[in-house]
Amino acid sequence: MVEEQVDYIVVGAGSGGCVIASRLTEDPGISVCLLEAGKPDKNILIHAPAGCAAMLPTKMNNWAYHTIPQKGLNGRRGYQPRGKTLGGSSSINAMMYARGHRWDYDHWESLGNPGWSYEALLPYFKKSEHNETHKGEFHGQGGPLNIAELVSPSCLNPLFIQACAANGIPHNPDVNGAEQFGAMQTQVNQKGGERHSVAKAYLTPNLNRRNLQVKTQILVSRILLENNCATGIEFLENGQLKTLKARKEIVLCGGAFGTPQLLMLSGVGPQQHLREKGIKPMLDLPGVGENLQDHPDIVHTYRTPSDTDTFGYSIRGSLAMAKAIPQYMMKRRGKITSNFAEGIAFAKSEAELEIPDLELVFVVGIVDDHNRKLHLGHGYSCHVTLLRPKSRGWVKLMSANPTEPPLIHPNFLGEDEDLQTLMKGWHLQKRILESKPFDPIRRDPLYPVDAADPQAVIDDIRNRTDTQYHPVGTCKMGPDSDPLAVVDHQLRVRGIANLRIADASIMPTLIGGNTNAPTVAIAEKAVDMMKEKLPHMSN
After folding, report:
1. Parallel, antiparallel, or unpaired: how do β-strands 194-195 and 190-191 relate?
2. pLDDT in the model for residue 518
3. pTM
4. Which residues pair with 299 in a beta bridge?
5. For residue 332, what is the domain's CATH number?
6. Which residues lie below 8 Å from residue 177, measured CB to CB, with a gap of 6+?
7. Which of 29, 101, 382, 431 sits at a 20 to 30 Å CA gap from 375?
8. Is residue 90 domain-shared with residue 210, that is, in the same domain?
9. Is 493 found in the same domain as 442?
10. Are 419 and 413 in contact (CB under 8 A)?
11. Which residue ranges of the chain lie beneath pLDDT 50?
12. What is the reported pLDDT for 534?
C-alpha cells in the first residue's frame, strides 16, 4: 500500500488555514492538503449576512463550546461559539472589520518577538485587503478579502454616532486608520451584499488548483512525531482512522481551543496534565493551553416602538422580513444584508488614557445571551467590551478522546482591575444609550439597574457578562527566556521540527480590537516566513 504524502498539511480551514493553503498553492510545484472538521460552506445562512443570528446560538456550523463554571461570573458557564465549516469563525461571525491598535503589535515586539511591530505587520493587513472605501497609507486594494460599507444600513446608526460624540467619543470615519479612538458605522467583510468570509476570499477561487486538496468533516486526532520531528497526522474520516504524511511542514490553524487541544492529544504540552489524561508525553511544553485571554463583554438593551428601523419579533417585524427576502434574493439589498452589529466605537474608560481600552458595538435589535434568549418586540442594544483584560485562563483536555471538547477556562473577571474597568464601561455605555439622540425612540431597558448603586452594577456585570468571541494566546509566541512560549517569532513550535502554528493562539497578548483581521495578517506573514525555506517560491 502506498502511503499518501503531500508537501504541507494544514489543520483547520479557518481564517488562518484558508490563507496558508491559498498562498502556498500559488506555486504549482507545492502540494497542500487542508483539513477541516466541519462541512463545506454551502449553507445559505453563511452567505446571507443576517444568517449569523441563527448560527451564533446554535450548533449550525458552530462548535458551540461552553466554559467551565466561572467564579467571576457567579459560577455561570460561559458560551464560546466557534466556526465549524470552511472559513471557520469568519463564516459565522458578525463580519466586523477591525484590526486593533498600533500599540498592540509594538507591544508584541517589545516582548521579544522581532518582526511583529505594527510597521512590520501593516503590509500584511494591506496585502490581504481590498477596501472599497479607504485607500492610502493604511489600506490595501486588490487583496483577496473584501471590506465594504453596509449595503442597507439602519437609520439608527447616526443616532449612535451622535450619542457617542455627546459623550466625548468623536466621529471617526476610519478606526483602522491613523487613529483608532472614535465611532463609526461598521465596515464589514462583505461583497455585493453577501458575507465575504476568509474561505470565500482565499479558498473558493482556488479550489480547482490541482495541487490543493480540501478535505471536510475530518477530525484530526494526533500529530505523528518521530525524533522530535512532525512527520504527519492521524485523522478520522467516515469513522476510519487514517494517516497522511507531510514532506515539508505541518501547520496548525485550529484556533485558541483546537490547536492546544491537538498538541496535547499528540503528547505535546504540560507533562503532568498529559499523564493525568493517560497520554504519553512526547515533549514537555508547559505553555500549551496556558495564557488564554478573551474579551469580557456586557450588553445593554432598550426597547423601541415596532416602527423603528430595527430587527424584532412583531407583526410589523415579520412583514418587514417578508419584504426583505425577495429584496435579498433578487438584488442583495435590504435587511438580510445587515450584520446586526452596525456601529463600532473605541473609547477610553478614563479621558487621560493614551489609547482606547473599551470597544462599543451598536446592534440594531434586542441582544440577550448570544441571541439564545428571544424577546417579543423591538429594541436597540450595545455591547461594551474590555479590550485588554488582566485575567488569564487556560485550555486543557477533558480526556484523551479527540471527539470530546476541551475544558475552557477564560477566568473572566478573575482580576479585580478587570471588574473595575468594565464598571466604567458599563456606565459609559448606559450614558450613550440614554443620550438625547435616542430620546424619540427609547423605551424601557430590558434589564433595569440602578446606576447609582455600585453593588447593583457589579451584580449585573457578574450576572450577564460573557465573551465577545475573541479567545487568543494559548500557544503564545515568545523568546527562549519565556517559559510559557510555545512558538518562536517565526511561529515554529519549540522543540519540534517541521511544525508551525498560524492562528490566534500565537498572540502573546490580546489586541485592542476584533481578532479576525489580525489572524489573516498573521497567516499572510507566516507564509512569507515559510517561503524563506523555499527559495524557488517568489514573494
Report:
1. antiparallel
2. 98
3. 0.97
4. 383
5. 3.30.560.10
6. 134, 138, 139
7. 431
8. yes
9. no
10. yes
11. 1-2, 535-539
12. 54
Look at residue 239 in the predicted model and tell me its pLDDT.
87
436 phi/psi in degrees, rounded to 5: -55, -40
Interatomic CA distance for residues 216 and 17, integer angstroms: 13
- Classify residue 460 as left (phi > 0), alpha (psi -120 to 50) or beta: alpha
Residue appearing with cell numbers 485523522: 235
Point out which residues pair with 183 in neighbouring strands.
171, 345
The pLDDT assigned to 28 comes to: 96
Indicate if 361 and 239 belong to the same structural domain: no
User: How does DSSP assign 71-96, residue by residue?
Assistant: GGGTTEEEEE--B-BTTGGGGTS--B
CA atoms of 243 and 233, how far apart (whole Å): 6
Query: CA neighbours within 13 Å on the CB side: how many for 230?
Result: 33
User: Which residue range is the domain that position 421 belongs to?
Assistant: 151-185+296-386+414-464
Number of Cβ within 10 Å of residue 1's Cβ equals 3
Catalytic hit among 375, 470, 489, 536: 470
Residue 107 appears among annotated catalytic residues: no
User: Are the beta carbons of 260 and 504 closer than 8 angstroms?
Assistant: no
- DSSP assignment of 340-354 equals S--EEEEE-SSTT-S
For position 2, what pLDDT does the model report? 47
> How high is the pLDDT of residue 89?
98
Q: How far is CA 217 from CA 205, 326, 456, in A?
A: 21, 33, 46
- 199, 41 contact by CB (below 8 A): yes
CA distances (Å), 36 to each of 200, 212, 405, 494, in order? 15, 13, 16, 25
pLDDT of residue 4: 87
What are the backbone dihedrals phi and psi of residue 184, each rounded to the nearest 5 degrees, phi first? -160, 165
Q: 50: helix, coil or strand?
A: helix
Query: One-letter amino acid identity for 518?
Result: P
